[in-house]
UniProtKB/TrEMBL annotation:
This is ABC transporter permease. The keyword Membrane applies. Keywords: Membrane, Transmembrane, Transmembrane helix. The chain crosses the membrane at residues 20-39, 59-84, 105-125, 137-160, 172-191, 211-229. Coiled coil: none annotated.
Amino acid sequence: MIPMIRSFSMFIRQIIKDSMLIAVIIAPLLAALFFRFGIPAVESLLCEFFLETSILADYYLLFDLVLSMITPYMFCFASSMVMLTEFDENMTGYLAVTPVGKRGYVLSRLLFPGFLSFLASLLLLKFFSLTQWTWDMMITVCFLSGMLSIAISLLLFSLSHNRVEGMAMAKLSGLLMLGLPVPFFLLSKVQYLFTPLPSFWIAKIMTEQNLLFLMPAILTSLIWIRLLYGKFDRKIR
């Protein structure tokens, strides 16, 4: 455990030294502030201008879901950038054969950041959500968002050769979050074309308020993680 903690401490120090990654970690808080105070203000202005009683209010839940997913996405993006830096500097293979080991490296670079992002998502949703959340739904959504972010982190690291490619790949990886707005705008069965996306099932859980969608949400995330982990494992050898 001590080698893993030391490895994670090294991971934190690398983030602190990188101003871009510090901005990435702070970004979810800025987004939370904008969603909590900016969106209602914009809603008020739009309703006054168009003489409507509601324009954006029907989509407050969608904004909350985006917030729950932005936090782990940013945390795991930072983790991917650190891993790609270590890969460029040939440190990945070295760390894998030290007392940290491959298992410790995976834990300190993927699971520890994922767990921290889970806690951060809970806090942001608790204090900045636009809609009312029960604790069970909040924990469920943040847990699923964390799983999805680990898959995204594996995708960024596995398919990129350096940080520049990683940042470009991050834009494409955002497609995995494309499932969030689907249940809000596609009410027909066409929406089920997005079933391979875990984000689709996360949105279904909240729009339907039905935990029966929890199983496909977990399964799709695990499938993505399993498919990407093989390439990740070969890369860090």
